[in-house]
């Protein structure tokens, strides 16, 4: 039986928590009077609902945006997001004795792959926010999402076996950062096309509003975490005012208040299924380091809060491999029902750091709310009514940020671009990935492999594989050290 948590009050009025291995009810107070929840803490039911709803508001803009932008069913994606979050939380509580407080939503890293597959199967690029794609196209993409989940599970167990340091040799930051960069920059042409081919004024205002909100509302409380939603709402209103015909709310009024999410089954047959599997699943190269970084971030903040409140540190960062297994299970479930591939959300991590609410039960409540929202037909219709000019303005910023985050990842890990090996790997990935994705229809290089890649090799996936192969060559046939490597080793030794 789990031991009970007790709290005592000191002469100064500070609440001190006694070490506990079980769940506790109520808030923890730190020595400086800051209140919050540890992962296993259970808020009261009223607070549980409010805290869960706040999590949903935080994840909602990005999760729904990816679904509607890429042609997935919004209700299905919201439903799957809630399910994958709840499953991950329950499995973490059972597996490591504590909730790993992360929320799972749609990942932006897969947008380029979705666009390539849908464009190839439609015969023309999919128009964002124009409603769900045909079931047969979503089903083919589901095959890639299911395999992505299996890859994450395998990598998670591999890390538990060989350790993260050894895995980093195969997937160093120059590869993961470069792949993340080409995912965003490879979509630049599509984003600019949407910006220029529709109402340019509306698109430009949407872009500027989103940027201004993200910069000037930073650290301004909860509202500062919603720049994309605020920019979308602002652009929507502007579009309705200056171009009334661009906003049609008739489908929203006609949509049912309640409807069962539209589920589809993955298809592992057809001429493009292998292309879909490779081009989608290879994007795990970008999401694996992202997920790991999020876990490190949460571990740091939670242990700091535990120290300040007299609680036991839980060191979540010990569970890197298990966390990736949970990521993989989430993607596997998403792929089974017709939802986008997911990732644990940095937005919700930031919310938890700001509020000191690390409660796993609060995240379970958020998952339940997301599931319920998945049954709203009018919500999906409202999202699909976003004008193309508004989505174009958002896309310029969002896709650019994805690319810049890849560069930031390399900066964070101090990747030296004076090292010829790094230059070779990064240059190859960047040129093949960006050039191929922009220069050829649907991002498919004109290099065909019969019965496997009949319409061409997916540019971003090909770029990632070339980078991995180059790095493998350098690992097997070690080149001579250069001055920058000697300096880096000296700095590392000094640290």
Q: Secondary-structure element order, as H and E?
A: EEEEEEHHEHHHHHHHHHHHEHHHHHEEHH
Q: Helical percent range?
A: 55-70%
Radius of gyration: 23 Å
How many helices does DSSP assign? 20
Can you summarize the main beta sheet?
2 strands, antiparallel
Shape: globular
Give the DSSP E fraction (strand runs of 2 or more residues).
under 5%
Average of pLDDT: 84
Give the strand tally: 10
Give the domain tally. Answer: 1
The largest sheet has its strands arranged as 1-2
Distance between the termini: 44 Å
- Give me the secondary-structure category: mainly alpha
- Poorly predicted regions are 1-21
Structure, described:
- The chain is mainly α and 495 residues long.
- The chain has one domain.
- It is built from 20 helices and ten strands.
- It has helices at 45-70, 74-96, 111-122, 135-162, 164-170, 173-185, 188-197, 200-216, 227-242, 250-254, 273-281, 284-308, 320-337, 346-355, 360-373, 377-384, 388-412, 420-439, 459-476, 483-494, and strands spanning 7-9, 15-17, 24-25, 28-29, 35-36, 41-42, 104-106, 342-344, 444-445, 457-458.
- The strands form five sheets. It has a two-stranded antiparallel sheet with strand order 1-2. It has a two-stranded parallel sheet with strand order 3-6. It has a two-stranded antiparallel sheet with strand order 4-5.
- A hairpin with a 5-residue loop joins strand 4 and strand 5 (35-36).
- Helix 8 (200-216) crosses helix 17 (388-412).
- It is globular and about 60 Å long.
- Residues 1-21 have low confidence and may be disordered.
């Amino acid at each position: 039986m789990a031991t009970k948590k007790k709290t005592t009050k000191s002469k100064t009025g500070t609440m001190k928590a006694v070490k506990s291995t079980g769940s506790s009810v109520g808030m923890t107070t730190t020595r400086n009077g800051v209140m919050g929840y540890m992962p296993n803490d259970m808020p009261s039911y009223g607070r549980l609902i409010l805290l869960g709803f706040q999590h949903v508001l935080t994840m909602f803009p990005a999760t729904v945006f990816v679904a509607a932008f890429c042609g997935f069913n919004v209700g299905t994606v919201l439903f799957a997001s809630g399910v994958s979050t709840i499953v991950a939380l329950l499995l973490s509580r059972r597996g490591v004795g504590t909730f790993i407080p992360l929320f799972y939503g749609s990942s932006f890293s897969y947008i380029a792959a979705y666009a390539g597959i849908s464009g190839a199967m439609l015969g023309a690029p999919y128009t964002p926010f124009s409603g769900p794609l045909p079931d047969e196209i979503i089903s083919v993409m589901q095959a890639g999402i299911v395999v992505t989940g299996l890859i994450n599970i395998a990598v998670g167990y591999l890390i538990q076996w060989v350790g993260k340091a050894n895995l980093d040799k195969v997937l160093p930051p120059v590869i993961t950062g470069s792949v993340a960069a080409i995912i965003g920059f490879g979509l630049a042409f599509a984003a600019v096309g949407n910006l220029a081919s529709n109402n340019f004024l509306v698109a430009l205002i949407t872009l500027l509003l989103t940027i201004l909100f993200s910069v000037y509302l930073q650290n301004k409380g909860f509202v500062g975490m919603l720049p994309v939603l605020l920019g979308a709402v602002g652009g929507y209103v502007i579009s309705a005012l200056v171009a009334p015909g661009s906003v049609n709310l008739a489908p929203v009024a006609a949509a049912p208040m309640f409807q069962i999410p539209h589920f589809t089954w993955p298809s592992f047959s057809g001429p493009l299924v292998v292309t879909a599997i490779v081009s989608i699943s290879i994007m795990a190269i970008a999401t694996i380091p992202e997920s790991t970084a999020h876990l490190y971030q949460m571990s740091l903040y939670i242990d700091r809060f535990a120290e300040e409140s007299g609680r036991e540190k839980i060191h979540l960062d010990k569970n890197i491999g298990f966390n990736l297994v949970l990521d993989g299970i989430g993607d596997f479930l998403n792929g089974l029902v017709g939802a986008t591939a997911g990732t644990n959300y940095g937005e919700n991590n930031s919310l938890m750091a700001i509020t000191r609410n690390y409660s796993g039960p609060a995240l379970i409540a958020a998952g339940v709310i997301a599931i319920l929202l998945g049954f709203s037909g009018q919500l999906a219709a409202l999202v699909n009514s976003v004008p193309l000019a508004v989505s174009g303005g958002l896309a310029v910023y969002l896709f650019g940020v994805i690319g810049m985050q890849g560069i930031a990842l390399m900066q964070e890990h101090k990747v030296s671009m004076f090292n010829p090996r790094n230059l070779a790997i990064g240059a190859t990935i960047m040129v093949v990935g960006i050039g191929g994705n922009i220069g050829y229809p649907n991002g498919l290089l004109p290099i065909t492999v019969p019965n496997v890649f009949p319409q061409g090799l997916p540019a971003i996936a090909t770029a990632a594989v070339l980078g991995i192969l180059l790095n493998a060559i350098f690992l097997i046939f070690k080149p001579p050290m250069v001055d920058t490597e000697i300096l880096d080793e000296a700095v590392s030794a000094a640290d």
